[in-house]
Amino acid sequence: MKELELKYGCNPNQKPSRIYMQDGSDLPIQVLGGRPGYINFLDAFNGWQLVSELKKATGLPAATSFKHVSPAGAAVGLPLTDTLAKIYWVDDLGELSPLACAYARARGADRMSSFGDFIALSDICDTDTARLIKREVSDGVIAPGYEPEALALLKQKKKGNYNIIQIDADYVPAALEHKEVFGITFEQGRNELHIDKDFFSDVVTEKKEIPDAAKIDLAIAMITLKYTQSNSVCYVKGGQAIGIGAGQQSRIHCTRLAGQKADNWWLRQSPQVLGLKFKEGIGRADRDNAIDLYIGEEYMDVLADGVWEKTFEEKPEIFTREEKRAWLDKMTEVALGSDAFFPFGDNIERAHKSGVKYIAQPGGSVRDDHVIAACNKYQMVMAFTGIRLFHH
Prior knowledge:
Blueprint: E1 3-6, E2 17-20, E3 29-33, H1 38-58, E4 62-67, E5 70-76, H2 82-87, H3 98-108, H4 111-114, E6 117-121, H5 127-134, E7 138-143, H6 148-154, E8 163-167, E9 176-181, E10 184-189, H7 212-226, E11 232-237, E12 240-246, H8 251-267, H9 271-274, H10 284-295, H11 299-305, H12 307-311, H13 321-328, E13 334-338, H14 346-353, E14 356-361, H15 368-377, E15 381-384
Parallel strand pairs: 6-7, 7-8, 13-14, 14-15
Antiparallel strand pairs: 1-2, 3-8, 4-5, 4-6, 9-10, 11-12, 11-13
Helix pairs in contact: 1-7, 3-5, 5-6, 8-14
């Protein structure tokens, strides 16, 4: 297939639209279901690059959940704890395959943002992963292949119109990439930077030791940032992104946004949230929304509006600010990556509130000494990578 005509571009008024290879060669994909659109393909191709690099860096199956050309979540296929299985709403599915665990983690980190996502998988989609995808609201999936039963399950979604893309895992893009803006062509070399656990050797803080597990988490953070719209910051714990702040004009706003998402991920594991009793028939998305309100500052307003009567079997106790802070203080060993240098120590102060212990960032700020001092204050370990990872 030399080219694929699309319904429209980013918006319905942007026609005509197509994808094709400038050199006239065949596209490295097959559409096995649905009719993917312009934004679907942007998410699919960025997501595929991300999971491919995660697989190379860690040796583990990887998955990502993309929305509007940035990941809402990314993870490798480590087993799920009972608590994670419960907060990701997969505890009824039994033991999952490593690839399904990767997607459950990627989807579960920020379920509200992942609603209606485009999925990328590093490995052939197996039946476990397809079962999980089938019951969630998403736009489509890209993978290097599909088991027959998995493909049959996915083709049942959206009355047979679910977007299913198979990509040639051996495809290697050209060394130069092009982009047009306002009729003007931009050209640059592809960002072929290789990131793995050996990428973090230049430790600049008093504390020097980065355990192998933390190096893997830092690699996940930096690879995720490589495909996240800049400015961006990523918090990672236990093999998965738990908070991604994308596309902010200020570095501290990235750190705060990603930190709040990481906090929400941890608060979902608190006894107060795990003890919520939902009414029969309340869907997963409605439960996610209710939990987000419950752990947020709006909960008193929700109580006043009587929302709890529609959602919960019994009125939940208020989750006080003091109780939330006490629970958040138990979150530790978090890794954090930044796609460009931290200009001020306020980013470190905010990261500390979300249990960050390991940091990777390019360095190169005129205030590096202040940032290092802030890390030393909290006995954090910080590595300078010397490499910026802007993505636009």
